[in-house]
């Protein structure tokens, strides 16, 4: 029984061929396709409004130098948002529940922000490792602590996204299993668990959107420190 709860997080395959690439590329089908006209319908208006809103929110903390990152940050936000939401549909696979994939997204982007700071303003970037006014005996310890906190940033990004989505999916499966089991013996309790399941699903939709936003927002804040 314990293994069946975690089967939903295993990468799907068909005839021994992994299907995770299809799961990763599928959200791109929901994005607007190139057309001769800017607006082709109500759906395109909604998509353009959402993209404009996301870009505006992500670019608020950044100055003009950081606006060059608008395309990659907005694309990452849309990718994570669509992937997380599609993973809540029945009989689907959520690639963002895989720690390896989240680390593969977090580490290169975090490293890019770090290298940007070291190239453009090395003294200021290195100065973040030692707060101003630190007592001399505490300097080695603080440098070690700040360096450690800097290096675990991509790990924290990946683990946060993975843990939140995994916990939500497990809770949904546990409560749905309880609803099915109790339906024949205790219908009233089963109805109550069904209501809890409905509310939990709404919560998970919110969590899926919030976690995508937090992931990209933290990257933009890391970028702000280095430009």
Automatic annotation (TrEMBL):
Tagged with keyword Ion transport: yes
Domain of life where this protein originates: Eukaryota
Ranges annotated as spanning the membrane: 12-31, 43-62, 68-89, 101-118, 138-159, 171-199, 205-223
Major place of residence: mitochondrion
Annotated catalysed reactions: H(+)(in) = H(+)(out)
Family annotation (PROSITE patterns): ATPASE_A
Compartments, record wording: Mitochondrion inner membrane
Membrane topology recorded in Swiss-Prot or TrEMBL: Multi-pass membrane protein
Keyword Transport: yes
GO cellular component: mitochondrial inner membrane; proton-transporting ATP synthase complex
Protein keywords: ATP synthesis, CF(0), Hydrogen ion transport, Ion transport, Membrane, Mitochondrion, Mitochondrion inner membrane, Transmembrane, Transmembrane helix, Transport
GO molecular function: proton-transporting ATP synthase activity, rotational mechanism
Family of this protein: Belongs to the ATPase A chain family.
Subunit structure: Component of the ATP synthase complex composed at least of ATP5F1A/subunit alpha, ATP5F1B/subunit beta, ATP5MC1/subunit c (homooctomer), MT-ATP6/subunit a, MT-ATP8/subunit 8, ATP5ME/subunit e, ATP5MF/subunit f, ATP5MG/subunit g, ATP5MK/subunit k, ATP5MJ/subunit j, ATP5F1C/subunit gamma, ATP5F1D/subunit delta, ATP5F1E/subunit epsilon, ATP5PF/subunit F6, ATP5PB/subunit b, ATP5PD/subunit d, ATP5PO/subunit OSCP.
Name used for this protein in its record: ATP synthase subunit a
Organism the protein comes from: Henicorhina leucophrys (grey-breasted wood-wren)
